[in-house]
Amino acid sequence: MYCKNCGQTIDPNAAVCIHCGAAVNTGNRFCANCGREATPGANVCTGCGYAFAPPPTAKSKLAAGLLGILLGAFGVHNFYMGFTGKAVAQLLITVLSCGILSPVSAIWGLVEGIMILTSPDPRDAAGQPMRD
Q1: For residue 16, what are the CA distances in angstroms to 66, 83, 107, 110?
Q2: How many Cα neighbours within 13 Å face the side chain of 121?
Q3: Is 130 within a domain?
Q4: Domain around 13
Q5: What proportion of the chain, given as a percentage, has pLDDT over 90?
Q6: Are residues 85 and 43 in the same domain?
Q7: How much is the pLDDT for 70?
Q8: Which DSSP string corresponds to the chain?
Q9: Which of 45, 54, 96, 106 could be disulfide-bonded to 31 (CB atoms 3.0-4.6 Å)?
């Protein structure tokens, strides 16, 4: 196994590369299978044919913000961004109170929606930056 950040051989059970300090399976400069330098944007290693994982698609900042403003009482924006715990909490507050406490969740969603739209660098639950 090779470090995807520096290309050096690493122990398969290691959490970080001892050569560069990068976490295992982070980086895209080298092939994890053969250690050769990867072609930028390539889906397959030209040396060994190993298939690279596709880059994660960024979630939309506008979609998350509008979902928070319009459907925040149900936590839809948090489900979209991957914050399942908060989303379930908002949904349960609305549903289990038979709608009596839905204004609480709605205000919560409205505030989060505005914060998402006005934040210069919003991130989803995986820590990936969101696109505009």
Answers
A1: 39, 27, 42, 40
A2: 2
A3: no
A4: 1-55
A5: 52
A6: no
A7: 97
A8: -B-TTT--B--TT-SB-TTT-PBTT--SSB-TTT-PBPPTT-SB-TTT-PBPPPPPPPPBHHHHHHHHHHHGGGTHHHHHHT-HHHHHHHHHHHHHTTTTTHHHHHHHHHHHHHHHHH-SS-B-TTSPBPB-
A9: 45
